[in-house]
Write a structure and sequence with these properties.
The structure is a single chain. The chain has helices at 33-45, 49-52, 59-66, and strands at 2-10, 15-24, 55-57. The chain has 76 residues and is of the alpha+beta class. The chain has a three-stranded antiparallel β-sheet. The longest helix is centred in the middle third of the chain and has 13 residues, at 33-45.
Length: 76
């Protein structure tokens, strides 16, 4: 299980504010892992449907949670 950071984006000020994390629990890539994580993050951290559009994930961190070829990296 790897944590993936969740941010609220302020498009006017062009800033991202960390609001929490979601856990990537899948060990293999199923094709829609990032979409599923984003849906979970928006469901958890958005107070309204309009606010859901400003919720985003750290894409690089989410990709690293999956590892190359869908395999997770061994712990360091």
């Amino acid at each position: 299980m790897k944590p993936v950071s969740v941010y609220r984006v302020d498009y006017v000020r062009k800033t991202k504010v960390l609001v929490g994390t979601v856990m990537e629990r899948r060990k293999n890539d199923r094709g829609s892992n990032l979409t599923g994580l984003l849906h979970l993050a928006r469901k958890t951290f958005a107070a309204s449907p309009e606010e859901a559009f400003s919720i985003t994930l750290d894409r690089q961190e989410a990709s690293l949670a999956q590892g190359v070829g869908g395999r997770t990296h061994p712990p360091r």
